[in-house]
Amino acid sequence: MEAVKVGLLGLGTVGGGTVTVLSRNAEEITRRAGRGIQVVQAAARDINKPRNCDTSGIDLTTDPEAVVNNPDIQIVVELIGGDGLARDMVMKAIANGKHVVTANKALIAKHGNEIFAAAQEKSVMVAFEAAVAGGIPIIKAIREGLAGNRIEWLAGIINGTGNFILTEMRDKGRDFADVLKEAQELGYAEADPTFDVEGIDAAHKLTILASIAFGIPLQFDATFTEGISEITREDVTYAEELGYRIKHLGLSRRTDKGIELRVHPTLIPERRLLANVDGVMNAVLVMGDAVGPTLYYGAGAGAEPTASAVVADLVDVVRVLTTDPENRVPHLAFQANRLSDLPILPMAQVQTAYYLRMQAEDRPGVLADVTRILGEAGISIEAMVQKEPMPGSDKASIIMLTQRVEEQSMNQAIVSLEALSTIDGKVTRIRMETLDAS
Ligand code: NDP
Ligand code: HSE
Questions:
Q1: Half-sphere exposure of 376 (CA within 13 A, CB side)
Q2: Is the pTM of this model over 0.70?
Q3: Which residue among 131, 159, 349, 423 is least packed, with the fewest CB closer than 10 Å?
């Protein structure tokens, strides 16, 4: 049977990796898909630029529209990134009756509802395994492998760049900016790396995970997002002294009042497997009512790990090219007309424990004021450490771990603490999760 013809939009880190994997593993892939998969055309900004793959036999163009309008092409693989040109091209490809594979989480998180509706209308597939956690087949695991479960919660390290930075800072004492530069050189970071360090990329991915876990529409704007740029080496050290690691987590949980949807640095007990996921590796812990906890681990970014997921999607699309559209796996795991209207829980109502660090004058009565404010807000202290002032400073560091409390109570307490004349500057607050899967 003739090979399925594929058009690539983008020939950068992931595009190049995809060409390489398709070519190196062509025989195995054909045996799996039942047909060969051939990249016939690829668009890039500069077609004369040296590439990380062999482009011989591929028609290179600077015009992405030429690819989405090419009548020979059955599957368009979008690897440009962003949600401007990428969105236009994906919508045009769908309108032209082409199946789409994308690694673009920003596109799916922000425009997935519209894209899936258009795809449903035209009976084409839109596959996006590579959009979450790089090479880990987490979309397939939740959407298909755990389809028998009521998912209770999931938590994951879902940004490779951020995890790489936190690991290098902790293990080698390296500087934030220096590690970020290396992540960019290795092709891990987004075109705009603030997406990685401010948690936006992880929020895109969590939005997608929550939708397929709970059967809710994609709601990126409702995701609480905090990045790692404020994490200091001191916080990393103090957390370790208390038996915790700081990880940048995406966390979504079903509660009686709605769905928690939040991305932020989190203290987790060092004995947890997630606490030991280092470097560019990602991991997602999913709690299903029937299966219990399951953990998925692998490379979260990089050319070939991501290409692994892109190619798996291509194989899936080739396998079901002829399947009745009504009987395909739904984009968001649940049938499009059966999505739930469960609300996303406002962050103010989310309950977590907290790590607090503040700089205080080293004199009697200060601790009493701090504990009084926390007590009045109904916040119980789990552990407390006071560090002597550094030479030349008259401020001591007070580090506290609290029990679980609603975010709004903590917000009020922090305002009162920062108003004390004996407390210097801002109070650092990092949320804590035990991730107890028992
Ligand atoms: P790159 O920046 O390496 O590649 C982007 C490609 O798009 C380049 O080949 C670029 O051309 C091309 N391009 C950009 N604008 C245009 C345009 N106007 N017309 C034609 N071509 C254009 O990005 P990545 O490969 O890293 O990422 C691609 C997608 O995959 C993104 O959505 C990203 O979020 C996602 N992703 C990335 C991962 C990674 O590890 N890097 C992992 C998982 C997902 P040129 O090369 O000539 O500049
Ligand atoms: N910039 C992303 C990351 C790429 O570092 O995780 C993979 O999605």
A1: 12
A2: yes
A3: 349
